[in-house]
Amino acid sequence: MKFQAFTQLNPIRKTTFVVGAVLFLIAIIIAIALFINIIYLQDRSAQRGVIALDLAHPSDWQYSTFRFKQDGRYALYLTTVNVFQKPDMAGAAPSSLPYSGSLEVMVVNPYGQIFLHRVVAAGSTDHVKPANMAWTKLKDLEIGRPFKGEWKTYARVLKADEQFAGSRSDVRIVAYDAEAASWNIWLSILFIMILMPIAVLGLILMTFRPVIVLSFCGLLFMAVMLYFLVS
Questions:
Q1: What pLDDT does 171 receive?
Q2: Residue 140: pLDDT above 70?
Q3: How confident is residue 88, by pLDDT bands cut at 50, 70 and 90?
Q4: Cβ distance 129 to 97 under 8 Å?
Q5: How far apart are CA 42 and CA 9, in angstroms?
Q6: What DSSP character marks residue 162?
């Protein structure tokens, strides 16, 4: 009956229906592909095994659990943020101070085996207390299969460096392509936002009910934006 109803439409209405259907299907298929790609990119841009450290005070072992969803190249970083440091008497930003303490880091795989163990001592890295932020790579990590299961990072401060008082530091694991993945997430979101009006136009051409279509698409848009805000 639906096919008979379609055949009874006038030529202009048939054309608008076909054009609308094509626009809607193309926009939805591309948007779904981009959405799936965003989920993949979110995992690549995620920072794992993050442990906050106060390098100005010795500490006991702390740990963080995480999971790898993909194999590949990762890196273990030591980071320090010093945005709350006051300028010196001349009003200039403080100079970078070399790290003179020591800390110990371990990465343990899901089988309880030590995947990485490193002691970071004074002079073994170029880590500094920066004027704003510093990232220092401690070790490259090649994560191969099997990688599924709960991993753990452990870290402790062995020797304090009082120069780092007032700063915030942590160790974290980051994928090699994390920065590119973050940019591609925003590009994918931009393309999805461009595709949504095309899909809406396609529905309007198919149904000739703009009020209902716009109301439904408005609710769908808010649901998608809520997902990105929560994730």
A1: 93
A2: yes
A3: very low
A4: yes
A5: 46
A6: G
What tens digit of pLDDT does each residue of 31-83 get? Answer: 888 888 888 887 777 888 899 999 999 999 999 998 888 778 899 999 998 86
pLDDT of residue 215: 63
Residue 56 φ/ψ region, left for φ over 0, alpha for ψ in the -120 to 50 degree band, beta for the rest:
alpha
CATH 2.60.120.790 assigned to 47-176: yes
Strand pairing of 128-129 and 114-120? unpaired
More confident residue, 187 or 205: 187
Structural contact between residues 161 and 114, judged by C-beta atoms closer than 8 angstroms? no
The answer to whether residues 227 and 48 touch, using CB atoms and an 8 Å cutoff, is no
Residue (of 221, 185, 230, 223) closest to 36 by Cα position = 185
- Positive or negative CA dihedral for 178, 182, 36, 49? positive
* Cβ-Cβ contacts under 8 Å for 100 (sequence gap 6 or more): 122, 161, 163
Helix (H, G, I), strand (E, B) or coil at 90: coil
pLDDT at 77: 92
DSSP string, 62-83: EEEEE--SS-EEEEEEEEEE-T
Tell me which residue has tokens 């009003």: 91
Mean pLDDT, rounded, for 131-154: 86
- Rounded to an integer, the average pLDDT of 182-209 is 80
Are 63 and 153 in contact by the 8 Å Cβ rule? The answer is yes
Map out the domains of the chain as residue ranges.
11-42+182-230, 47-176
Among candidate residues 95, 77, 99, the one with its CA nearest the CA of residue 87: 95
